[in-house]
Amino acid sequence: MILNVLLPILATSQAALAATNVPYDVFSHYGRSLIENAHTSQKSNLPAKHVALSQALQGRLPNTTCNSSTDYPIGILGAGMAGLYTALILDDLGIPYEILEADSTRIGGRIYTHQFDPSKEFEYYDVGAMRFPLPQPGTHGVMSRLEHLFHYPPLNTGGDLALASKLIPYYYRAVNGTGRMYFNEVHSTVNANPPSQFDAQAMDVPQPYINAGVSNILNDAIGPLAEALFNDINTGTTAGWQRMQELDPHSTRSYLAFNYTPSAKFAQQYQLPETPLDVDTINWAETFDKSTQWYDRALTETVLEAVAFGDVPGVTVDWKCLRGGSRQLPYTIKAYLDSRSPGSIKQGVQVAKIASTDPGSTSSPLIVTSTTGDAYTYSHVISTIPLPVMRTLDLTQAGLSIMQSNALRQLQYGPSIKIGIQFTEPWWTTGVDKDGKPIGIVGGQSFTDLPIRTVVYPSYGVNTPGSAPSNVLIASYCWTNDAERMGNLINTGADELLKDLVLRNLATVHNVDYKYLKDRLVAVYPWDWNHNSLTMGAFAFFGPGNYLKLYESLSVPASNGRLHFAGEAISVRHAWVVGALDSAWVAVHNYLIMTHASQDTLNKFYNNWGINWEWTKSGAESKNNNGTLAHEDNLLLEHLIIHRSDLFSGA
Predict the structure, then answer these.
(1) What's the CA gap between 382 and 401, in Å, rounded?
(2) Is residue 101 in some structural domain?
(3) pTM over 0.85
């Protein structure tokens, strides 16, 4: 996100939300509203006296036909964050499990830290997840479940298990100096006041819009949608959700082109026409706000990302990263799991097929077959394999519904690339430009319309006594179409072309000589998540209509209640580690319901791993905020009964 345009308009709403101490956030509210809206119509298709639903509403956990088997463990497919978190929960509940991980060299999935020089502490960069906008102490926020994981006592007993102590500040904005901006061959800085207009006239943008500026336009267009979701929570109403439901079929581009009109006050202030935006103005806004063709994806994604990045000091967001790289998170979990159950994580096992031993029996275990022909038998399977990869497996005997198969095909992932470069020195901090001015950048980012698009400066190795600063720069961080184009130069035999392009772009953005950078170059490590066979995309990035029509189908199990899905795509918190954690919670909860877990087990689950407010009925917060969840308030239980009534006794 190039410009965090919604801070002024969201500050008041988020402050009001924090003051209410509501235990859920906008993402939970949005996800809950999706499910409750769907259930309103779906329940009418169930028999009026449906036994299982009646039992749930009376506070009882109905029996299922999918009882647990003690003969086989649960199979977890993938040792990314969803898989590892699933294992942590199962370990805590005393439920046997086994993880199959395709990668033989590492774990962590899309958490991946590349180290250029192991002999130097800060010579690395995070190829995948790199920053965590945690809630401020004592408040609830989008990343609350992740914050709990960082401080989970078994991961903080000392020695190799000291996860929380590795959290350090992440500087989303430069802590010293200021990031550079270079658009339309015009140099400026992130903090320029007044901001540069970057020759927007050459992009055929009408002057009134130029005068208003991208930030103000998007505050007026997107801000009220996000603000209305906050207001829903503060007031107990649903107007914000209903508005988002109406707009779910829209991309950001179509919303701006056909639905949005400037508010009367805003239009009067800048003499804007009270009509939707023209094509040139939309393209101009996208260039400075996001990445090329971002606006072609769901408007919902744009609104929810604005909420996630809303950094209101002292209210919600406390930017953190991990000293030693984000890999510290999965590898700390692995160290703990290895100490508890040695050999439970099997690496180098790539799954080729998932099948029921008897598709006609609800008591039949599942067989997972690897690409080498090895077979693994499990009572239940929780798959955290990314959906594009999942679709390449043989699932013909896995019992997926038509909607689930369509979801695997249609739910969209976004491309992303990063290019890390190791230099001999942190020239972005210590160097001078061609005009003799110190560059002086520490932390933060720079932005450009050149192919590299976003430059990210290291936040680690900053003000660290006894350690040398990092010489590693994320020279390019791209999404959507920008990533697709740069990805064509990664691991395709075009290494020299890629290196030359990146150095030229860096030199231009920072106003230094190309030779100055080339002489200081040590190594380049590019990565393209879209062309990786184990991911086939960087993160879930839905298109218009995906949320309302397909999202809910993957929140119920397939294969007679024994094949469960997890991963950040099966949450509303896309592209964030916490989305993977939330989805794992849902998958384990599904397993507990389907196997008719004891109340003691359920209470331990809720008490130790929290309640997912996305799956709790509206108005139930006050009586379910003490480590329990009443069955009659359990939206996930209702969801399972509605979609898989055949698996519940008395259905």
Answers:
(1) 17
(2) yes
(3) yes
CB atoms under 10 Å from CB of 20, counted, come to: 11
In degrees, rounded to 5, the angle at the alpha carbon of residue 318 between the alpha carbons of residues 314 and 324 is 155
Q: Residue 56: CB partners within 8 Å, gap ≥ 6?
A: 62, 631, 632, 634, 637, 638, 641
**For residues 102 and 111, is the Cβ–Cβ distance under 8 A?**
no
Mean pLDDT along residues 269-278: 98
CB 521 within 8 A of CB 419: no
Q: What are the distances in angstroms from CA 183 to CA 67, 190, 508?
A: 61, 12, 11
Crossing angle for the helix pair 577-594 and 81-93, to the nearest 10 degrees: 40
Q: Which helix (H) or strand (E) holds 168?
A: strand 167-169
Local structure of residue 256 (DSSP, 8 states) = I
Long-range contacts, 250-253 (Cβ 8 Å, 24+): 250/298, 250/299, 250/544, 251/295, 251/296, 251/297, 251/298, 251/299, 251/543, 251/544, 252/222, 252/286, 252/294, 252/295, 252/296, 252/297, 252/298, 252/299, 252/301, 252/302, 253/282, 253/286, 253/295, 253/296
Residue 245: which domain range? 196-314
Same domain, 200 and 310: yes
Residue 509 covered by a domain: yes
Q: In this structure, what token pair is assigned to residue 144?
A: 């609350």
> Is the same domain home to 81 and 97?
yes
Return d(Cα 48, Cα 54) in angstroms, integer. 9
CA 81 from chain center: how many Å?
A: 11
In this predicted structure, the answer to whether residue 645 has a pLDDT above a threshold of 90 is no
CATH number of the domain bearing residue 366: 3.50.50.60
pLDDT digits (tens, 9 = 90+) for 366-386: 999 999 999 999 999 999 999
HSE of 2, CA atoms in CB hemisphere, 13 A: 30
**Residue 9: what pLDDT?**
44
Q: Give 49's contacts (C-beta < 8 A, 6+ positions apart).
A: none
Q: CB of 303 within 8 A of CB of 244?
A: yes
pLDDT of residue 316: 60
Beta-bridged to residue 563, according to DSSP, are 381, 558
Report residue 320 as tokens: 């953190």
Rounded Cα distance between 576 and 570, Å, is 12
Task: Give the model confidence (pLDDT) of 162-219 as tens digits.
Answer: 999 999 999 999 999 999 999 999 999 999 999 999 999 999 999 999 999 999 999 9
